[in-house]
Design goal:
The chain is of the alpha/beta class. The chain has one domain: Flavodoxin domain (Rossmann fold, 3-Layer(aba) Sandwich), CATH 3.40.50.360. It is about 40% helix and about 20% strand. It has helices at about 1-25, 40-50, 65-80, 110-120, 140-150, 170-180; strands spanning about 30, 55, 100-105, 110, 125-135, 155, 160. Strands 1, 2, 3, 4, 5, 6 and 7 form a seven-stranded mixed β-sheet that branches. Helix 2 (about 40-50) crosses helix 6 (about 170-180). The radius of gyration is 19 Å and the shape is globular. The two termini are about 35 Å apart. Mean pLDDT is about 90; it is low at about 10-25. Bound molecules: flavin mononucleotide. The site of flavin mononucleotide (FMN) has 21 residues, from helix 2, helix 3, strand 3 and strand 5.
Length: about 180
């Protein structure tokens, strides 16, 4: 009897250690830039479904509030490959195995502040998962351009959601997370 009890206790210990190791292994971070809130809404849906930590990329100089002005500035920055200064980088990146990278689709690519962040951090060996909101152009070059900036990362299939329905994206987010093996 004692031996059985001892065995059960041992199995329990091994089991909980394995579970802890697994939880530890899948620490997730969401980094995102959002100009008008849609990508932030999607980032928060992903956070709700995964429990990941959240990091918002903020520029040192704010983009203009006027729509045509930001559209024009973004066009020029993208053409000139400008990397606008950002306020901070996420801390303790080494603690994370999975990094979701979120951006609005700007001129069919990721917003320059996201390129700034990706060019400053080393995501080697981590799993990178792009997510995008757009006006109707879908993923376009966004996923490809994230990959180009993270040449030594593994990738999971990204998600593109129309910004107009970001607030109603929870079912799509859960389905996508399940598909890529990151669902609860
Ligand atoms: C500068 C700029 C460029 C954009 N370019 C595109 C584009 O090429 N294709 C597209 O589908 N939507 C485009 N949009 C629309 C945004 O991708 C869409 O509204 C997105 O949901 C905004 O996300 P945010 O609210 O997180 O900033 C653009 C918006 C801005 C401000």
């Amino acid at each position: 009897m004692k031996r059985i009890l001892f065995l059960c206790a041992l199995l329990g210990l091994v089991g909980s250690a394995a579970l802890e190791a697994q939880n530890e292994k899948s620490r997730m971070l969401i980094v995102y830039y959002s100009y008008s809130g849609n990508t932030q809404t999607l980032a928060k849906e992903i956070q709700k479904a995964t429990g990941a930590d959240l990091f918002e990329i903020k520029t040192v100089e704010a983009y203009p509030e006027e729509y045509q002005a930001v559209v024009d500035q973004a066009k020029k920055e993208i053409a000139d490959r400008v990397r606008p200064a950002i306020q901070a980088l996420p801390e303790n990146l080494e603690d994370y195995d999975v990094v979701f990278v979120g951006s609005p689709n700007w001129w069919s690519t990721i917003a320059p502040p996201v390129s700034t962040l990706l060019s400053k951090v080393n995501l080697k060996g981590k799993t990178v998962v792009p997510f995008i909101t757009h006006g109707s152009g879908g993923m376009a070059d966004c996923e490809k351009d994230v990959k180009a900036l993270c040449p030594r990362s593994d990738f999971k299939k990204g998600l593109a959601i129309n910004g107009n329905v970001a607030e109603k994206s929870s079912v799509a987010v859960q389905k996508w997370l399940k598909e890529i093996g990151l669902g609860k």
